[in-house]
Amino acid sequence: QLCQAIEECKRVILALPEHSERQKDAVVRLIHLRLKLQELKDPDEDEPNIRVVLEHRFYKEKSKSVKQMCDKCSTIIWGLIQTWYTCTGCYYRCHSKCLPLVSRPCVRAKVSHQAEYQLSICPESGLDSQDYRCAECRAPVSLRGVPSEARQCDYTGLYYCSSCHWNDLAVVPARAIHNWDFEPRKVSRCSMRYLALMVSRPVLKLREINPLLFNYVEELVEIR
């Protein structure tokens, strides 16, 4: 049935207009079907080598000596006594027991099918617009730290709990483009992974977004 669905999905993709939203959605469906088929082909084990969750493609890690932090529960992964997985797309790491609780979709899919930056500087809308809940896992948060501290991501402008925002630092594209500001800012885990995957993609048309920048930055004039 999966093989038939894959072939049907291929025909749909070829029939749809190129680069259309419907074709992109069909490509995502095709990827999901292929991953499900691959998962069925893998031999059954107590802990399968491959797990697919929210577009993450998790592989069971074999390294026992490396100490990592779990992206879901924010605690240490003890490789010697715990089974853990890494997503090959976005490098999300978590305990085997945390896999069913993963709430963050793989950002690799977004990079592949919607490669664009948020170009407004920290577009804050307030905690009330999030119902005083974490933008990712929906855990209750507040600026007073009760029950959990609300941490703002400088890239999305949204607020996250301490499990989804570890105060990682990253250069924010909007600040670089509009202010030529490359000072690293605090961003959520999801934003950090997305920015890391996007950093080498040539998607910014600088002369269209901020042509005046060429009047003030000598290096840009030289590059042009």
Automatic annotation (TrEMBL):
<keyword id="KW-0677">Repeat</keyword>
<keyword id="KW-0862">Zinc</keyword>
<protein>
    <submittedName>
        <fullName>DEFI8 protein</fullName>
    </submittedName>
</protein>
<feature type="domain" description="Phorbol-ester/DAG-type">
    <location>
        <begin position="55"/>
        <end position="106"/>
    </location>
</feature>
<comment type="function">
    <text>Positively regulates lysosome peripheral distribution and ruffled border formation in osteoclasts. Involved in bone resorption.</text>
</comment>
<dbReference type="Pfam" id="PF00130">
    <property type="entry name" value="C1_1"/>
</dbReference>
<keyword id="KW-0863">Zinc-finger</keyword>
<dbReference type="Pfam" id="PF13901">
    <property type="entry name" value="RH_dom"/>
</dbReference>
<dbReference type="InterPro" id="IPR047983">
    <property type="entry name" value="DEF8_C1"/>
</dbReference>
<dbReference type="InterPro" id="IPR025258">
    <property type="entry name" value="RH_dom"/>
</dbReference>
<dbReference type="GO" id="GO:0008270">
    <property type="term" value="F:zinc ion binding"/>
</dbReference>
<dbReference type="InterPro" id="IPR046349">
    <property type="entry name" value="C1-like_sf"/>
</dbReference>
<dbReference type="InterPro" id="IPR051366">
    <property type="entry name" value="DEF8"/>
</dbReference>
<keyword id="KW-0479">Metal-binding</keyword>
<dbReference type="InterPro" id="IPR002219">
    <property type="entry name" value="PKC_DAG/PE"/>
</dbReference>
<comment type="similarity">
    <text>Belongs to the DEF8 family.</text>
</comment>
